[in-house]
Design a protein that fits this description.
Two copies of one chain form a homodimer. Chain A is α/β, with parallel strands linked by helices. Chain A has three domains: 284 residues, Thiamin diphosphate (ThDP)-binding fold, Pyr/PP domains (Rossmann fold, 3-Layer(aba) Sandwich), CATH 3.40.50.970; 154 residues, Thiamin diphosphate (ThDP)-binding fold, Pyr/PP domains (Rossmann fold, 3-Layer(aba) Sandwich); 142 residues, Rossmann fold (3-Layer(aba) Sandwich). The first copy, chain A, contains 27 helices and 19 strands. In chain A, the strands form four sheets. A seven-stranded mixed beta sheet of chain A has the order 9-8-10-11-13-12-17, with helices on both faces. In chain A, helix 24 links the parallel strand 18 and strand 19. The longest helix of chain A has 29 residues. The N and C termini of chain A lie far apart (72 Å). Chains A and B meet through helix 6, helix 7, helix 8, helix 17 and helix 19 of A and helix 6, helix 7, helix 8, helix 17 and helix 19 of B.
Chain lengths: 654, 654
């Protein structure tokens, strides 16, 4: 914590530094990030790539007045270190510490909470347009990676931005990598520029023009045109940007602070949309991260010992279990095809790709089109399985509707990261998928409670002629759950739940991974002398109607448990079913994520506990429900005693 | 019905025709479309623009084997006329007649039900990829307009398609118009090509090369390269497509059948992704439609008398009411800014634009980025109002989440076309918005029952510091509803319902426009001696808890009514509230759209009636609920009589 970094309270302090000091600062920042991410886990390679660029941006712009929009936001650690968050950076991604993404509650320098890709440019366009209306001279900068810029909403924003008649700077941070290697024709096009050493020439060209460049307004624009002419001579410009209205500058070296500062000074006041193309190296400063940028994109805590880097391993994840389940399914069914949207590692499809390279597609950070591609394949007779995080499938909500549900196509969605995601926080929780998929016609929603169930889910999904979604969390699989008398996990039958434990004082109906917590809660309550039944719901759609009516007809509490919002989620589906069956729903208690709160980053277990979704919390709610139901029964009994048969009639007439 | 068209049962018949006959067929088709759309309403200008192109496509390809994907699908009438649907084309868009969009239930030539934009290319990519895996030589064609190709998912698909190493033909139908003039930098770029007469030269070039062109496989590709070289000499190619992996051909005249057939024959077997750029005239063949393509994009029935064309007017629409409400709001609040996504006419924002040209933005067919632009504006202190159809806001589901809800930004969404949309059918019903917006933190959901309420909604929304959505249908506003004793419409208060009619036998709680039907139902039941209360819910979120408990504590039925799916909709919100309050929900009946059915095109009134959501249907349900509740009360009374106080206890212990 000594050195220059510790003296930086805000970007103003940055501007007091000499060029050698700025370079030293860059190295200190790099080391600080490697240290903290090594301890806490987090986004490593992406942040190491933008150290110089971020320093240069804060050196040139005043982002309390100017506007800085981060795309995805997994590259904002440097920005955090420069805007007053070095002091608690050791707590990165831990409860109470800085979030791993820009966060409006942390700093006025963070304009948007982000995490999903492609949105920086359109929000920047909105802010630029607002600035025009408000007669503000604020400069607007959007920083976007080469993997994100081909996301649909980014392209839409770029297309609108090309119409602006004022300053707008879009910086394309091109490291030829997203979370995985960038996909698509555009990426191949960009790649051509990376293999040539031409951008060295651009630097020289810039140097030639800059001494004569005034710093503000229209003259700067003129200078830029000179600059561009010079660059054109050296490098073929990207007509793709020019054609939609941008002045294109680059490609240029994203690790040369001095050069970046010179360039940004010109671009700050260029009254025209500009695309600045910057080449950076993902993971720069940590050889292992440069060598394996996928593995070090967002690693668990790791330790560097000599030339060996060991990433903390943490048991068998749902992701690993899914990868094996998918491979198994593909072995048995030649129609199976695996798709991911830029998350081969995160979804386990990297393993699938190795096993079935011809039956694998990475659609890039483009969930919308990935779902459409899957629908096209399904229409042609394949059985596509889209492995997309719950939170990211939101981006394809309308494609799931039009291309899948409306056609009745049996596309299978495997939603990793469903429920609380732990240290990635509010923007990444998979807390909406049941609500937003449940309203779709003929959609089947399943959740496995353990690994054998995940396999069984997939087997059933492949037998059905309907669209299906299967959800599981960012967590490890539990030991397989078996009910007394069960030797193996029973197969999934459409709309049938599974009894895991019998007990007459209350029934917990748990969805997916909540079964483990529910069983533990039942065990806790057994110590209190209560016999609690546990049902593994297996389906959020269709709901097992017989199970609901059997449980409710006892008059004992039925407690639903889900790691999902209570607004329209699994519990609501049970409630709707009960009401449709004409059952008294007063014995129902729904446990899940609170409707109106955002749950911040921290450990997944702590997030569950905070919402009363751990075993202890569930046990407490069940106990309370039993007490309440007994009191109510007593009350009804008393009422019946006191007022006799007319009482109900009187109430009904009130 | 005489002439050539009546002899065309399938595209095979087309191939028997001579060139002069094909041209005559084109004129017959044009006249047929003008006649039927004049009578039934529908998409006029877009279909008149693609007559020759569609004939040429079906002439060259066999789309029972090859694949034809329509983007948006509002230009598929010609396709329908050529694929066996001429005989019932008079019933276009009427119940039982052909849908106004491609429809998989109508014909094997229709591969996808569509209506939302941008999806043809990615689904085509999926089908092309599947064909490769299946070793099929099927040619895949996606037809997309210049307004749709800049939609995010289209661009994403284009980007993926550029990687294919087989045939894929993307036809850019460039008429410089979407539903409204195309927006964005790319559109400006395309416009440069339209003003030049260069494509005439392309035709000559093609003619020069074609005689020597073999028709299949790699040789065709070689010929194409020659062709392209020739074209390059004449026109600057669109590097934007070349750079992402497409061979670019065009621009070419989309009304020259002969030329199109020659060109398509080459492209059919070109084993490489090709973008064919076709210039067409929207509305060609109907001068009034060419002159006013927005007005004649999708007109109501109209009559041509000499040089006057009169479009059937149909009373004051919700859209017109909204336009005036928005203008009023903008007069009173300088922060108000109006946004539409390519629907200035459909949302009424054309009128707003005239009043406040500087406070208006058309984001193009790009709902995702339009919402993000609005969020950027809102963050900068403006009060953006996004007028987007309910069904199209689905495209921005994730942007509403990340850029609006997660930031707590008070962006206002005005959802036109909420509920049944009548003759546009299943793909356009706004039947999901309550479910998919209700799960968002702090979101306020309102629906006005009449025009004064629409104004009141907007006034409240502008006072709140939360995101809001206001829904209203494709229909006319009813006469203002006033409860007995009310002189004017009371203002909206957050989470407070409004009593429209008192009555003790049951309470109908209606959302939005369903209030009118509910009042009529109450009137019908008054004739039967039943006193039915009607509550205008006003809010689907937050629900008026006091209203729910007051209504339920009577023990009489509470019947919720919404023109929205029953899965997670308004009724579910009421149900959740009742359950949270510990109330007996057995008296609740929820009326809405059935969860598992797709309701096809037809009249909106008929669609409501089909789902029991007209006054008669509601009355019937209410009556049934009253009978059932009374029987249940009688039953409970008997049970209490028969078994005394222990009965409940016994039940509770079962």
């Amino acid at each position: 914590m000594t050195g220059i970094l510790s003296t930086i309270e805000s970007p103003a302090d940055l501007r007091k530094l000499s060029m050698p000091q700025l370079k030293q600062l860059a190295e200190e920042i790099r080391q600080r990030i490697i240290d903290v991410v090594g301890r806490n886990g987090g986004h490593l390679a992406s942040n190491l790539g933008v150290v110089e660029l971020t320093i240069a941006l804060h050196y040139v712009f005043d982002f309390l007045h100017d506007r800085l929009l981060w795309d995805v936001g997994h590259q904002a650690y440097v920005h955090k270190l420069l805007t007053g968050r070095n002091k608690n950076f050791d707590e990165l991604r831990k409860a109470g510490g800085p979030s791993g993404f820009p966060n409006i509650d942390e700093s006025p320098y963070d304009l948007f909470n982000v995490g999903h890709a492609g949105t920086a440019i359109p929000t920047a366009v909105g802010m630029a347009r607002a600035a025009s209306i408000q007669k503000s001279d604020a400069s607007v900068v959007a920083l976007v990676g080469d993997a994100s810029i081909v996301n649909g909403v980014a392209f839409e924003g770029l297309n609108q931005g090309g119409l602006l008649r004022r300053q707008l700077l879009v910086i394309l941070n091109d490291n030829s990598m997203g979370i995985a290697p960038t996909q698509g024709g555009f990426a191949e096009h960009l790649a051509k520029f990376r293999v040539s050493p031409m951008y060295e020439d651009v630097k020289k060209t810039v140097k030639r023009f800059l001494p004569s460049v005034p710093v503000i307004g229209k003259p700067a624009l003129g200078a830029l045109d000179h600059l561009k002419e010079g660059i054109k001579a050296a490098v073929s410009p990207h007509q793709i940007f020019e054609q939609i209205g941008y002045k294109y500058v680059g490609p240029t070296d994203g690790h040369d602070i001095e050069h970046l500062i010179e360039l940004l000074r010109v671009l700050k006041s260029t009254q025209h949309p500009v695309l600045l193309h910057v080449h950076t190296t993902k993971g720069r400063g940590a050889e292992y991260a440069v060598a394996e940028p996928c593995r070090f994109h967002s690693p668990n805590p790791f330790r560097v010992e000599g030339c060996r880097v060991e990433i903390q391993s943490s048991g068998r994840s749902w992701t690993a279990a899914f990868a094996d389940a998918l491979i198994e399914a593909a072995k048995n069914d030649p129609r199976v095809f695996g798709l991911t949207a830029a998350m081969p590692d995160g979804t386990g499809l990297n393993k699938f790709q190795k096993a079935f390279p011809d039956r694998y597609l990475d659609g890039g950070i483009a969930e919308s089109s990935t779902v459409d591609i899957a629908a096209g394949m399904c229409k042609s007779g394949l059985r596509p399985i889209c492995a997309i995080y719950s939170t990211f499938l939101q981006r394809a909500f309308d494609q799931v509707f039009q291309e899948v549900v409306l056609q009745g196509l049996p596309v299978i969605f495997c939603l990793d990261r469903a429920g609380f995601v732990g240290s990635d926080g509010a923007v990444h929780h998979g807390y909406l998928d049941i609500s937003y998929l449940r309203c779709y016609q003929h959609m089947v929603l399943m959740a496995p409670a353990d690994e054998p169930e995940l396999n069984a889910c997939l087997r059933l999904a492949l037998k059905l002629d309907k669209p299906c979604a299967i959800r599981y969390p960012r967590d490890n699989v539990p030991t397989p759950l078996l009910a007394p008398g069960e030797a193996t996990t029973p197969e999934f039958e459409l709309g049938r739940s599974r009894i895991l434990r019998k007990g007459g004082d209350a029934t917990i109906v748990a969805y997916g991974v909540m079964c483990r917590e529910a069983l533990d809660a039942a065990e806790l309550l057994a110590n209190e002398g209560l016999e609690i039944g546990v049902v593994n719901a297996r389906f959020a759609k269709p709901i097992d109607r017989e199970m609901v009516s059997t449980a409710l007809e006892t008059g004992h509490p039925l407690v639903t448990v889900e790691d999902h919002t209570l607004a329209g989620g699994f519990g609501s589906a049970v409630l709707e079913t009960a009401q449709e069956l004409g059952l008294d729903t007063r014995a129902i208690v729904r446990l899940g994520m609170p409707v109106e709160r955002f749950i911040p980053h921290g450990a997944r277990s702590a997030q569950l506990a905070e919402c009363g979704l751990d075993a202890a919390g569930i046990a407490e709610s069940v106990q309370f429900a039993i007490r309440r139901t007994r009191e109510a029964a007593g009350l009804r009994e008393n009422v019946a005693n006191r007022t006799g048969s007319n009482r109900l009639k009187d109430v009904a007439r009130t």
